[in-house]
Every structure is written in C-alpha cells, then in structure tokens.
Design a protein that fits this description.
By secondary structure, the protein is α/β, with parallel strands linked by helices. Strands 2-1-3-4 form a four-stranded parallel β-sheet, covered by helices on one side. Helix 1 packs across helix 4 and helix 2 crosses helix 4. The two termini are 26 Å apart.
Length: 141
C-alpha cells in the first residue's frame, strides 16, 4: 500500500463480497476523479472473483475492472481512509472517531445478469459523482 498523501481525500468502499457494488464504486471514483482522490475497496467476506456481470456492465461504460480482485476488509484500510462508504455490509466495518461514514442502500448484483446490474452501475455513478462534488470538487491548480 502506498503512503497516505495528506492533500488527497481517501475513500474506502465496502460491501460484503467486494465483487460488485464496492468494485463499481471504486472504479467510478478512479475514473471520474483521477488522482484527486485515493481509492480503496474491500469486503467483509470477499468472494473469489469480481462478478462477471459487473465486469461486463462496467466494460459497457468504458471501464475495465477485469484485473481487479476482491480484498478483505482490514482495520488499517478504515484507519487510512477519510470517508468509508458501506453498501449492505451491516456492522462489519469498524468505526473510528473522526472518520466520515456513509451507507449507500443499493441492490446487490450478486447472482444477477448484466441487465439487472446496469441500473445499479448507473446509480453508483451518480452517488460517486455527488461524493466527488463534496470531497474533491475540482482539480488542484
């Protein structure tokens, strides 16, 4: 893991399997904010691989996440993040003072086909765009 850069906000996206929602959110944040934001994703019970329907839905949007792998949620990942966004993982995410926590209510793409994943992908894009407007509204000069 790279050393924390204090001039960039850091965001951690967490879902149960780190195979769908959190992967899409991390990819959108990286795509839309570039290097203005440090991005992490993890799962409380990571799957073996990213959901193929999620990979296809993101590919349709011009983003390739086929090389991503689900990662286990660690206390360190939460400690190193300014904002922790949970998506259906309940109380699995440790809570630390001074961190901002958001809980996005999103359908779970697990077991769904690409047609069912598209609206979830688009909703995540909208939520991520709103988050960028709050934490990194414009490129540094």
């Amino acid at each position: 893991m790279s050393a924390r850069q204090p001039d960039r906000p850091s965001v951690l996206f967490v879902c149960v399997h780190n195979a769908g929602r959190s992967q899409m959110a991390a990819a959108w944040l990286t795509h839309l904010a570039g290097d203005r934001v440090e991005v992490r994703s993890a799962g409380s019970a990571p799957a073996d691989q990213v959901n193929p329907a999620v990979i296809e839905a993101m590919r349709e949007a011009g983003i390739d996440i086929s090389a991503e792998t689900p990662k286990i949620l660690t206390v360190e990942a939460v400690q190193e993040s300014d904002v922790c966004v949970t998506m259906g993982c309940g109380d699995a995410c440790p809570v630390f003072p001074g961190k901002r926590y958001l809980d996005w209510k999103l359908d779970d793409p697990a077991g769904q086909g690409v047609a069912a994943v598209r609206p979830i992908r688009d909703e995540i894009r909208s939520l991520v765009a709103g988050l960028i407007a709050e934490i990194a509204p414009y490129p540094p000069r």
